[in-house]
Amino acid sequence: MTVAMIAVVATVAILTVAVAAIGAAYGAKTSAETAADAAALAAAVGTYPPAARQGPVVAARHLATSNGALLKGCVCPIDNSLRARVVEVIVTVPVTLPIFGERSIEARARAEFDPAKWLGG
Fold this sequence. Notes:
- The protein is an alpha+beta fold.
- It has one domain (2-118).
- The chain contains three helices and three strands, in the order H-H-E-E-E-H.
- Strands 1-2-3 form a three-stranded antiparallel sheet, with helices on one face.
- A hairpin with a 3-residue loop joins strand 2 (85-97) and strand 3.
- Helix 1 (2-46) runs antiparallel to helix 2.
- The longest helix is centred in the N-terminal third of the chain and has 45 residues, at 2-46.
- The chain is rod-shaped and about 80 Å long.
- The termini are far apart.
């Protein structure tokens, strides 16, 4: 009976740690996706200087940081033309997982900005 009880307690403990790790990873993934979306939208507008208060990388970094992430990459060239453009950003969110330690969860997002439509064209 004692051996069975120890096995049950050990199983419950393992399942508890696993659920905690999965929950933490899922929360970090959601945060990373939100930060990536916000950063991509900010960077897209930042590629068109007349519409931007700051450059695309600065805007993306600010929004990523505001959402608890780090900007890892930004493909967001500045373009003065009225052509539509698409940017892509990559962000990471640090998370501490039980047993596994510190990890980084990565997310990517793309956003399009069309200056001609923004200007009413």
